[in-house]
Amino acid sequence: MAGIVFISPYQELTNTVNRVIEKYQITNMEVLEGNLDQGLILAQKAVNDGATIVISRGGTYKLLKSKLHTIVLELKLTIFDIENSIGTIVKSEEDIAIMGYDNMIQAYRMLANLNHDHIHIHQLQYDEKVEPYIKNFVKKGIHSFIGDTIVTEHCRRLGYPCQIIASSDESVKMVIDDAQAVLEGQKKESEFNKRYTALMDSVHDGFIATDEKETVIACNLMAEKILNLDKNHLIGKTIRSVPELKDFLKIYSEEETVIEELALIDGRNMAVSNVPIQVQNVNRGSVLIFQEVATLQKFENKIRKKVLGTGFAAKYLLSDIKHSSRIMRECIIRAKKYSQYDSTILIEGATGVGKELFAQGIHNQSSRRHQPFVAVNCAALPESLIESELFGYEEGAFTGSRKGGRPGMFEMAHNGTIFLDEISELPLQTQGHLLRVLQERQIVRVGGTSIVPIDVRIICASNKNLEKEAAAGRFREDLLYRVNILSLKIPHLDERKEDIPILMNFYLSKYSTKYDKKGLGFSEEVVEYLTDYHYKGNVRELEGLIERGVILADDDKIALADIQKESSVNDSVQLEKTEIKSVEGLFADLPTLKALEEEYIAYLQNKVATTNELSEILGINRSTLYRKLNENKK
Question: What are the Sigma-54 factor interaction domain coordinates in residue numbering (predicted)?
C-alpha cells in the first residue's frame, strides 16, 4: 500500500486526481472512490495496509477525520473552484439554496457576489439529516441547489437540480504537495525516533525518562531487563504509581543532578543517576539512569581486557605436566584441589622444576581460567621500577613516565591470576606494599591518590626457603603468613628419577619435530647418562641437553657426545680435576677466563641470598648480572 491514499467521494473528483497523478508522475499515492461510510471502510483498510496519510473532501473528510487514528488532510474548496463551478448560476435571479459543511460554506461566503437576497445558505452539521432541509427550502419555493456530494445525491433522489462544486487540478495538486511534505516529515521523524530508540537500547545502563507531570515517556531495553518489566507497563504511568520504581523515588526527587549514587534497589546494589531537565528554569521532567554494580564490574573487566590487550594467558594445563612418579602425582592432586579456592598459594622448588607450569595449570583449572594470567619475574625487575611495574603509575609520577600513566601488573590481572615468581627478590619496602594489597585488595598507582579495587588470585613462587629468609630479616614475616596460606613443594628432578624417561621422550618428540629430524632416538649410553645425571637445573636443564642432542645428532641415534658439552662448566668436580699443563709456553689446558667467571658466579650464587648482594660482590649492576646469568644458562 502507498503511503498516501486519496478517498474520492465522486467519480469526477476521482478522474481529476488520477489526471494530476499521471501529469506529475506521483508514485506513492493511491486513489479509492467511496463516499462517507463507504469511504471510511476503504480508508480503514488502507491504513491497516500501511497508508499513513489520508486525503478527502467535504463530509467524507469530516467523517474520516473523526474516525481514523492517522493524519487526514482536507481537499479544501478555493474561491476559484467556486467561481469556475457556479459563476453563471449565481448571476441568475432564481432563488438558490447553498448547503454544505463549514469548509464549503466558508469558501462561499468569501465571494462578495453571493451577498444577494436570492442566495440562501445553510451550514450542515455532520450528524444532521440533509433531506428535511432540502424539503424545507422547496416549501419556500426554492428548487435549485448548490452542495457537496451528499447534498447532490439527496437532491437528485428527490428530483431537484443540484450543482456540485468541482475541485480544480491546482487544488488537488496543492493538497497532494501538502501530503508529500507531511510524509517526508513523517519519514524524518521516524528515522530520528529509530536512531533515538537504537541509541537508548544500545546503552549499557537502564534509562527511564519522565515529563513535567512525572509521567514515564521513555524506557529502554536495558531498563526492562534490569527491572524485569515490559515498557508498556511503565510508559504512560506516573513514576510514583509504579511499585517497582518506589526505591528510585528518593534519588528521583532530588532537585539537583545526582551522578552514580549507590542505592539498594529491590535488594540489589545499583549505581543510580538522576538528571532533572530544566528549560528556562521550568521543570520539564527528569531522566533516571541506573545499572547493577555487579554488571558494572563485569563490564569494567571486559573493557580492561580490551584496553590492556589479551596477551596475558596461561597456555598449560595440569594435565600437560609429564610425570610417572608418585610424588609428582600427589603434587598435581594437591594443585587441583588448590585451584578451586582463591586463597594465596606459595609454590616452592629449585630453579627449573616447573613452578610456573604449575601456576598456569592451577589458573586454567580454576573458575578464573577465562581471565588474564599475568606472570611477573620479581628478580628481573629493576629495583627503581618494581613498584611502578607492579602497581602502575600516573602521568608525571616520574621523569620519563608515559603520558596518561600506565596500569600495573595487578590491574592487568584483574579478575584473573597474578604469578609472582622469585618473590624473595622483592625489596623490603615493596614487600610492605604487597602485604597491603593482599590485605585490602586494592592498589594506588605510583604518583596517584585514587584507590583502584582489584580482584586477583595471587600465586607466589620461590626457589629459596622463605622461612629462613624471614628469619634472616630478608623477607617480611607478616608477608610470609599471607602468601603461605596454601603451599606446594615441587620436588627436584633428582628426587623423581622415574619421571626422566617420560620427559626425555616428550622433549625428543618436541625438538625432533621442530628441527625436522623425525625418527630420531637415544643411544643406550645417552639413556644411562641422562638417567644417572645430576640435574642442577632440573627439568629445564634436561630439556636443554636434549635440544642440544637433537641439533648435533648426525645419525638416527643421539650419541653421548651430542649431549655432553666440550667444557662442562656446570660440574665443579671436573673443574677441580683440570691440570695445568704447559705446551710450548702456552697454557692450553687451563680453563678459559669465561669458564672461570661462570664457575665463580655459580659458586657465589650458592653463598648469597639475593641477586642484589651478588651484584654488589661482583661489582656490576643488576642488568649486567642478569645478562651474564642468562648467557651461562645457554
Answer: 321-551
Residues in the chain predicted with pLDDT less than 70, given as ranges, are: 79, 83-93, 103-104, 106-116, 126-127, 297-311, 396-404, 566-591, 609, 621-623, 626, 633-634
Which cell is 224 given? Answer: 526492562
pLDDT at 86: 63
Residue type, 573: V
Does the model's pTM come out above 0.85? no
d(CA 151, CA 100): 7
Is the CB of residue 287 less than 8 Å from the CB of residue 277?
Answer: yes
What is the C-alpha radius of gyration for the chain, rounded to an integer number of angstroms? Answer: 46
Q: How high is the pLDDT of residue 361?
A: 95
**Contacts of 456 by beta carbon, 8 Å cutoff, 6+ apart:** 410, 413, 414, 415, 416, 417, 418, 441
Distance CA 245, CA 247 (A): 6
Q: At what angle do helices 102-109 and 58-67 cross, to 10 degrees?
A: 140
108-132 pLDDT per residue, tens: 666 545 556 777 888 887 667 888 9
Contact 107, 84 (CB under 8 A): no
CA nearest neighbour of 347 among 290, 417, 245, 409: 417
Three-state SS across 124-191?
Answer: CCCCCCCHHHHHHHHHCCCCEEEECHHHHHHHHHHCCCEEECCCCHHHHHHHHHHHHHHHHHHHHHHH
**What is the CB neighbour count within 10 angstroms for residue 299?**
13
- Give the Cα separation of 359 and 419 in Å (integer): 7
Q: What values do phi and psi take at 5, rounded to 5?
A: -125, 135
Lookup result for grid cell 597474578:
418
Pick from 405, 317, 400, 407: nearest CA to 358: 317
Task: Using the Cα atoms of residue 152, residue 153, residue 158 and residue 159 in order, give the sign of their dihedral.
Answer: positive
Whether 15 contacts 34, CB under 8 Å: no
Q: Per-residue pLDDT tens for 253-270?
A: 888 888 878 888 888 888
- CA 489, distance to chain mean position in Å, is 42
CB burial of residue 351 (10 Å; 0-12, 13-18, 19+):
middle
d(CA 58, CA 534): 110
- CA 50 vs. chain centroid, Å, equals 36
